[in-house]
């Protein structure tokens, strides 16, 4: 099966696309996602945060993980920002949007991004266990999907990964986390 080559950019390599209009760089966008991840951690949720911007840089939605507090297994940060933005604009299709998330998305979130027609995914830390953008599968490159999007990886990866590592270390020690 031949893959569909999507444009991929790695922060560690230094060559990145232009940031969204009105934003100085992708780190500024990821800082908002990290704030949402920290807020999720305070609630005992896995600290993953996401933001969704329109193609012209308008902040459409921001959220952290909430499956535990909402009793909703689909309440990942990515799913929540897609739902919020779709409600805000009155359409489930969100073409050209930029989704920034602190952790490489899972299969469920990848599917939602494809259906929503996200234009660019920006993520921080890789997820070697369940990430399907780069780690476990080349998700956006798979030819049987009807939409493909560009990927920027590794934005503030150390900080994003460190937040998760510290959260789970505290959980193992019996902390409220």
TrEMBL record:
EC number from the UniProt entry: 3.5.4.33
Gene Ontology molecular function, alphabetical: tRNA-specific adenosine-34 deaminase activity; zinc ion binding
Residues passing through the membrane, by range: none
Free-text comment on the cofactor: Binds 1 zinc ion per subunit.
Active-site residues, Swiss-Prot/TrEMBL: 78 (proton donor)
Role, per record: Catalyzes the deamination of adenosine to inosine at the wobble position 34 of tRNA(Arg2).
Subunit structure of this chain's protein: Homodimer.
Name of the protein described by the UniProt record: tRNA-specific adenosine deaminase
Organism, as annotated: Solidesulfovibrio carbinolicus
């Amino acid at each position: 099966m031949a893959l569909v080559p999507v444009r991929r950019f790695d922060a560690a390599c230094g060559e990145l696309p232009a940031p969204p209009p009105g934003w100085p760089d992708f780190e500024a966008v990821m800082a908002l996602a990290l704030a949402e991840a920290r807020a999720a951690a305070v609630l005992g949720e896995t600290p993953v945060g996401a933001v969704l911007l329109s193609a012209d840089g308008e902040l459409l939605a921001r959220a952290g993980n909430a499956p535990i507090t909402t009793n909703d297994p689909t309440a990942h940060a990515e799913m929540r920002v897609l739902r919020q933005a779709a409600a805000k604009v009155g359409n489930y299709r969100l073409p050209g949007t930029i989704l920034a998330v602190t952790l490489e998305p899972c299969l469920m979130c990848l599917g939602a991004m494809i259906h929503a027609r996200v234009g660019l995914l920006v993520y921080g830390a890789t997820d070697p266990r369940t990430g399907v953008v780069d780690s476990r599968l080349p998700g956006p490159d798979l030819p049987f999907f009807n939409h493909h999007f560009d990927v920027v990886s590794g934005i503030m990866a150390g900080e994003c990964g460190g937040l998760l590592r510290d959260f789970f270390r505290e959980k193992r020690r019996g902390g409220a986390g």
